[in-house]
């Protein structure tokens, strides 16, 4: 029986390995982590992450061919294939701080693999890493190899949170990069055999190591660029009376452009887009390509602009001050159907409003982390959040926000009552009929808002 071990039981390691175990009953999969609470949660009824469909997949294989453990060394020792899916955040200190990927966790995982291994292993980069990381990992492993043969593969993950199980069951493609040597091809084939249990052959792409590593950063940069492009258009729409949804639809019907990922928003968030673009920018700079670096940096600049533009809209609409006014925040997660609040645009919007001394009352359908709860006032119901508020800000596109009784909300709010829709989820005209003053990203402006400055 092939044995797989995955180091890192996070948003990627957990769901990815659960699906491998589910689709490959002949393979034994162990997911290991240094975090005891995380592993305990994976072994309980309350999984550490919320992802539609994940519970069923985990329940189906846990303790059969899927195991979660803190005994990292034992499972690495036993494995034929070791996936490394540890976090690779942006460096906060030292060389490349604020841009480069912090590979501390990766390096310590690689050193541990070298320490405990007694047999040949395929080591798979699942984390998103800078191009050429495989070379560094190879050096760490081979310098400590004790005669063991390691093959490094790059197998970046393209799942999106909220649709992880769907994405893993039916991926657009699986990408595997390896060394162009006989041993390298053999390792690529071994990993391909795992995915071929359920992924059609023509969707498993094989490349050299560097193409696979760079394709992951490129894919995230292209996706984020589309959002910044439509968000840049949203500002122009507001200035001209065009409607960003109509523009996006018209643009997206061109088959060369395509309709997906063109929803204007308060800005993109999540743990990866910004981190991966910063990483790309840093790699460009290190390779003497400042113009290319500047090009990608602009995607982040527009995203920051979009978030501050939204805050400025709120403050300027409400007589230029939100001091001591209750503002209800509906949605804190970085997108719907996830409990993840990492790098959510809601953090920047809330900070902006708190900077103007607003009193925030936050409601998200998913429970907030204890750290977030300590910093802001969270409530368990949208009606409680909006009671006596001057304004409602919608920051995540949860479906339940579309179904709220806005007449009830209006009746219980201070007047004039404002709605700032950062996700274009509500029917603005219906809300206007109730009496709200409504701002929707990239949509024709209310008379109230028209003459106010959009950006201070
Ligand atoms: N979150 C997402 O949707 C996606 C993330 N990625 C990439 O996948 C990687 C992992 O991301 P997430 O799963 O979101 O991170 P995460 O932070 O949820 O999980 C990483 C886990 O690795 C563990 N860990 C760190 N060092 C360790 C070590 N030496 N030994 C054992 N465990 C260790 C941590 O305790 C943590 O539980 C990142 O590189 C990210 O860019 C790629 C595609 C999607
Ligand atoms: O490397 C990663 O971590 C992953 O990053 C993204 O996945 P994720 O961040 O989970 O979620 P997305 O659906 O891409 O959304 C990212 C952000 O963009 C925003 N967004 C998305 C689409 C859109 O049209 N408009 C928009 O503002 C979302 O609300 C969210 O804040 C990519 O979609 C995945 O392919 C990739 O694997």
Notes on the protein architecture:
By secondary structure, the chain is an alpha/beta fold. It folds into two domains: 2-199, NAD(P)-binding Rossmann-like Domain (Rossmann fold, 3-Layer(aba) Sandwich), CATH 3.40.50; 241-456, 3-Layer(aba) Sandwich (Rossmann fold). Helix content is 44%, strand content 14%. It has 18 helices and 13 strands. It has helices at 13-23, 36-42, 54-61, 72-78, 104-116, 133-143, 164-169, 182-195, 209-240, 244-252, 273-286, 290-317, 345-355, 370-375, 382-386, 406-411, 428-434, 447-450; strands at residues 2-7, 27-32, 66-69, 81-84, 121-125, 150-154, 174-178, 204-208, 326-330, 359-363, 391-394, 418-421, 437-440. Helix 9 crosses helix 11, helix 9 (209-240) packs parallel to helix 12 and helix 11 packs antiparallel against helix 12. The site of uridine-5'-diphosphate-glucuronic acid has 20 residues, from helix 9. Uridine-5'-diphosphate-glucuronic acid is lined by residues 128, 157-161, 220, 223, 227, 261-263, 265, 268-270, 272-273, 334-335. NAD(+) binds at residues 8-13, 33, 38, 86-90, 127-128, 161, 272-275, 342.
